Amino acid sequence: MRLSREIIITGGDAHFFPWIIAAISSLRAHAATRALDMGIIDQGLTEAQRAELSALGCKIVEPEWTLPVPQEARSLRNIGLVARTALRDYFTGYEVYLWFDADAWMQTPEFVTAYVEGARARGAAVVTEDGPGYRKTFTDWKWWAGNMVASFGLVDGLRCSFATSINIGVLCLRDTAPHWQQWQRYYTKALERTGKVNMDQHALFAAIHLEKLPTAFLPARFNWLPHLSCPVWNAEKKLLCEPTAPHRPLSVIHLAGPRKDRPYEVAHLSGGSFATSLTYPAMQQHLAA
Fold first, then answer.
1. Could you give the CA distance from residue 36 to residue 211 in angstroms, rounded to a whole number?
2. How many other C-beta atoms can be found within 10 angstroms of the C-beta atom of residue 276?
3. Which of 99, 97, 85 is nearest to 11 (CA)?
4. Which of 35, 129, 156, 194 reaches 20 to 30 Å from 248, CA-CA?
């Protein structure tokens, strides 16, 4: 019997377990998200870690290779990328599937409503990588465009390359959305042409734009990438906010990239700054101060 119409799903391996716990802790900190079902994609967790997650009420599944990934690329790390395209098959009986990367954490629950309503209305909801103050280099664009062209050919690849990119570290799809099938189709194209598994984000982006799939494009504060633009600190509200006026609070902080606990120089809205990492445990200490 289904307990909820929506489910939030994250995942990782034994090494990533502390990040999984931090993400879940942030989601459980608010009543609005505490009531939602939680799913876990097991990419190599230990039995003790699985038991801890089960005790937290999480539903745990072990993914399979549902797409034609080359044998040499079949690792536990990569299977999580493939698994996202089949979440509705692993966790059946829900209407809305909200993926939440384990290196992200929730500051406010505002994002849930935006994603869920967007997915219900349009089939899918994603965030565009164009937040206030975001800085992208030519090297960033070259990587994005090069992979697009390699995966989908010169014409279609360039068509996608000049549109604003998305980040699917937080992603929401409705169960009946055509995006699932098209995402898998374009992902398969990318796998066959490049052999690279990390084309999942490119594949969904191409499917959305080339197939003209209706999609809700949400503002960056619902999946904020601090390595592209450092947030500011509102000491009165004790919230990380956008770095430009009107300094709206960030709903999700996504620590994408290899240095997840790197230090940032965070400016106070009232003046001055302080050095801190932007991990969930680190920011909890600032809340308690």
1. 32
2. 15
3. 99
4. 35
Give percent above pLDDT 70 in the chain. Answer: 98
DSSP string, the chain: ----SEEEEEEE-TTTHHHHHHHHHHHHTSHHHHTSEEEEEESS--HHHHHHHHHTTEEEE-----S---GGG--HHHHHHHHGGGHHHHSTT-SEEEEE-TTEEES-THHHHHHHHHHHHHSEEEEES--TT----HHHHHHHHHHHHHHH-HHHHHHHHTSPPEEEEEEEEETT-THHHHHHHHHHHHHHHH--STTHHHHHHHHHHHTT---EEEPGGGSB-TTTS--EEETTTTEEE-SSTT-PBPSEEE--SS-TT-EEEEEBTTS-EEEEE-SHHHHHHHHH-
pLDDT value of residue 4: 54
User: pLDDT of 180-214, one tens digit each?
Assistant: 999 999 999 999 999 999 999 999 999 999 999 99
Residues paired with 275 in a beta bridge = 265
Q: Is the pLDDT of residue 2 over 60?
A: no
Q: Which of 27, 24, 20 is nearest to 43 (CA)?
A: 20
pLDDT tens for residues 237-285?
A: 999 999 999 999 999 999 998 899 999 999 999 999 999 999 999 999 8
Answer whether 150's CB lies under 8 Å from 194's CB. yes
Residues 27 and 47: beta-carbon distance below 8 Å: no
